[in-house]
Design brief:
It contains 5 helices and no strands. By secondary structure, the protein is mainly alpha-helical.
Amino acid sequence: MHGALDWWNRLKWLADVNALLASRPEDNVELLARAAKARGLGRAAAQILLLCRNILQAPLSADATGRAAAVRTTTSPSRKLSG
């Protein structure tokens, strides 16, 4: 039961981010992505953007989607060292 509740919380969080994206102009998504990257959260932001687009049909431009996919698929230096 606990695991099921945890997953619902994650889905709600995804829906909240999707609502935020839908309420903002498209160029604001780029500002959010850059702010996340500046704080070392670029990969996490890219993943959430792609999840919102793929699961909840968030209105992301082709450019924003392409940039998010490129960030998400690059390997971080720490992973290269540990793997």
